[in-house]
Amino acid sequence: MVSTIVINRVFLLTHSFHQIPMSTERCSELTIKGLYHNFDELWIAEQPILAIAYIHEHFPRIGRTFISKLIAKKRLENYYEFLKKKAIH
Q: Does residue 22 sit within a domain?
């Protein structure tokens, strides 16, 4: 179930970025866990931002290709659709 949601958010872009914001309690919990375990760095973000940032950081060529060919095109389509709906109302 969780993997399906992640796949939908990252690859199919079916969920909005701000649809389910991370709570302050969850962010605090993750930060405290990272401090407790002495992690040098923490990446705390909602999906798909975290997955995209990870890919872009560790696999830059794949990240650039992914962003330019897949995400940018879909985001532009969603944006234009949003503008059309806004103009109708």
A: no
Residues 6+ apart with CB under 8 A from 66: 52, 55, 56
Q: pTM, whole model, 2 decimals?
A: 0.48
Domain of residue 55 covers 1-15+45-89
Q: Mean of the per-residue pLDDT values for the chain?
A: 76
Task: Provide the token pair at 36.
Answer: 């407790």
Q: How confident is the model at residue 19 (pLDDT cuts 50, 70, 90)?
A: low
- Which residue has tokens 């405290």? 32
* Residue 82 token pair: 């949003």
Identify which of 15, 74, 39 has the alpha carbon closest to the alpha carbon of residue 2. Answer: 15
Calpha distance 20→47 (Å, rounded): 10
Q: Is residue 81 part of a domain?
A: yes
Count of structural domains, the chain: 1
Q: Is residue 38 part of a domain?
A: no
Record the tokens describing residue 84, joined without a space: 């059309």
What is the three-class DSSP state of 18? coil
